[in-house]
Amino acid sequence: MAASTEQATGGVEKTAAEEKPRVLEPGAAPFGNFPHYSRFHPPEQRLRLLPPELLRRLFPQSSETRPILGLDVGCNSGDLSVALYKHFLSLHDGETCSDASRELHLLCCDIDPVLVERAEKECPFPDGLTFITLDFMNQRTRKVLLSSFLSQFGRSVFDIGFCMSVTMWIHLNHGDQGLWEFLAHLSSLCRYLLVEPQPWKCYRAAARRLRKLGLHDFDHFRSLAIQGDMASQIVHILTQDHGMELVCCFGNTNWDRSLLLFRTKQATETHPIPESLIEEGKERNRIRFWRQ
Ligand SMILES: C[S@@+](CC[C@H](N)C(=O)[O-])C[C@H]1O[C@@H](n2cnc3c(N)ncnc32)[C@H](O)[C@@H]1O
């Protein structure tokens, strides 16, 4: 499952093979499993849009609900997972905190075992982040691995899921139905969900890249009916079909990807959304889709 070296510009994921034909290899990244993804889509671009106190506000202190459990789907080699962990716990470089894993635990999964191995090796917070190889679309393994993790904490769902720059790869490889099911599983597994969908222009770039490498087109690219404004499409599926509501949009990255926070409607009945989050979002003009 080797992936070619990758660089990107202008928000469109692009292989280095496109830039320098001499390094062209017969292995694009069919699942978005680029070996150095964070070099061209750095975590900081996303983090600067997310309030560091977000999780503390969404999940106010209570020993019964500790630690906060997060699921990072499509974690690649873990750079964004670690950055999110540090960001939400306000940890600085080189700093470790003995209480950190009691505050927040992330289960991070990726389909590519080589990336997962690297993530495990390089993780500075092995007590707070667990990395596993998992094809999230494989129902049997997903059920076994996720339940086994959750049961260690006596839980049946995650507090929050992170789905960052993954939806396009699921969509291209599994079609409209696959994307719909993927979002269904995530919404049933997570009380809150932070999604960073890739815009449609990235789909075209990914398909073009594969053609340039002389590889097979994505099975589903030409038959996708869900297309166009992908952020709105995903908002529609999660809110109309999967019982979630849009809490806010934290803004757009340099790559024109929006960061959308959802939560299950059930959670809304028992835990109102913190007013401070709403006000802050309004002030920063970041809440575009508030309760459509
Ligand atoms: C473009 S990278 C995004 C990495 C990271 N989330 C970020 O935003 O920095 C997409 C990741 O999703 C993973 N992925 C794609 N399909 C997957 C699947 N079915 N199950 C688990 N991971 C998958 C890829 O291997 C790849 O590492």
Describe what is shown at a glance.
With 292 residues, the chain is of the alpha/beta class. Helix content is 41%, strand content 19%.
Characterization of the model:
The structure is a single chain. With 292 residues, the protein is α/β, with parallel strands linked by helices. It has helices at 16-19, 37-40, 43-47, 54-58, 79-89, 100-103, 113-122, 139-152, 167-189, 200-212, 230-241, 265-270, 275-283; strands spanning 6-9, 12-15, 68-73, 104-110, 129-133, 158-164, 190-196, 244-252, 258-264. The chain contains 13 helices and 9 strands. The strands form 2 sheets. Strands 5-4-3-6-7-9-8 form a 7-stranded mixed beta sheet, with helices on both faces. A two-stranded antiparallel ribbon has the order 1-2. It is globular and about 50 Å long. The chain starts with 5 loop residues before the first strand and ends in a 9-residue tail after the last helix. It binds S-adenosylmethionine.
